[in-house]
Amino acid sequence: MTRFVVDCGVVLHLASEGIEVPAEHELLAPTLLRSQTLSALHEAVHAGEIPPDVARDRLKSIGSMPIRLLGDAVLRRRAWDLADQLGWASTYDAEYVALTQLQGDAFVTLNAKLARSVKGIVATATIEALRTT
């Protein structure tokens, strides 16, 4: 079993494309994923990019994905330290990286800049890795 930490962009992509991840993979994310996906979908509706019913369907799809959400004190402390180490003002991305360090095999993000910035800190994988067994 491979344990992938997936970020908001990946989860939104999985929902919009109807991609199902094989059971051989375990998906992990920090608890902030709930708020990030909710906000991203609401923003897309507000900007007129997608209709409200499509956004609600995607939110429902995301809610049914087997993603283990984690957010304990150890994760938060590690995210804080990583954000300091990487010079990031925000800790949001650092939570995903910290979770990968603590429990994941690889971090999956569609954000190429983020993937480059964590090279050598955590293993990364492409979204295609989620489709294969």
What is the count of DSSP helices, taking H or I runs of 4+ residues? 6
Distance between the termini: 9 Å
Q: Largest beta sheet, briefly?
A: 5 strands, parallel
Structural class, by secondary structure, is: alpha/beta
Indicate the proportion of strand residues.
15-25%
Rg, nearest Å:
15 Å
Number of strands: 5
Main attributes?
single chain, 133 residues, alpha/beta, five-stranded parallel sheet, 6 helices, 15% strand, globular
Provide a descriptive summary of the structure in words.
- The chain has 133 residues and is α/β, with parallel strands linked by helices.
- Helix content is 53%, strand content 15%.
- It has helices at 8-17, 32-46, 52-64, 73-86, 92-103, 112-117; strands at 2-6, 25-30, 67-70, 106-108, 124-125.
Question: Could you give a quick summary of the protein structure above?
Answer:
With 133 residues, the protein is of the alpha/beta class. It is built from six helices and five strands; from the N terminus they run βαβααβααβαβ.
